[in-house]
Amino acid sequence: MLVAVTAKGTTKILNAAMEPEIVDLQNFLNKMGAKIIGAGTNEIIIQGVEKLHDVGYQVMPDRIEAGTLLCAAATTAGRITIKKVIPQHLEPVIEKLKQCGCDIIVNKNEVMLQAPKKLKAVDIKTMPYPGFPTDMQAILVSILCTAKGTSVVIENIFENRYKYTNELKRMGAKIIIEGKSAIIKGVRKLTKATVEATDLRGGAALVLAALSANGKTKVTNIEYILRGYENLDKKLNYLGANITKEVE
Does residue 19 fall inside a structural domain? Predict the structure, then answer.
């Protein structure tokens, strides 16, 4: 899309991603003078223009960050209200958290969650939008590590996205990887450890695991986390966490 907006002629993108972020990008570029239709479907058509112009634009709420914060409350038996979100974008995550035993109230632009004392196991399959997002896979696996029962997670989008599970095992998680599947047997409690973020969402998953673990956990290689979350430590501390960020 970015390349095609100023290319000569008409460009068609087939089998396009349909996530809300693609629609938001289309709206942004069109406000700058681009001619794009079809975002949110599997075919996007771009009529090239000579140039774009400057605009002011408010980016859509980050559904993955919102989902991460909901899961942070869920794994600590907490309560949270997240405002200025688009609940429709969070529907697959909300549904799974309800299956875990969370009480959730959805209003026009906010989501309120009350977690139970102990989450229940659930099964998850990542799918293209509007299915369960692959970017929430690691986050859910993290909170399922202490859920009651055995959960099965199937990753259908990206290969080799279970690297972080080795770090969760160092904290006492019981996870078996079989191809695209992760089998998680819930334990009573995770324990402190020094663990390493292997990617963005896996790093966030380790932070959430540390929130409910016994003792003080150290997460290294946090550059991955900082790339995708703004002030995550401050937001979690505001909710009652005790996180100290050390950046070299």
Answer: yes
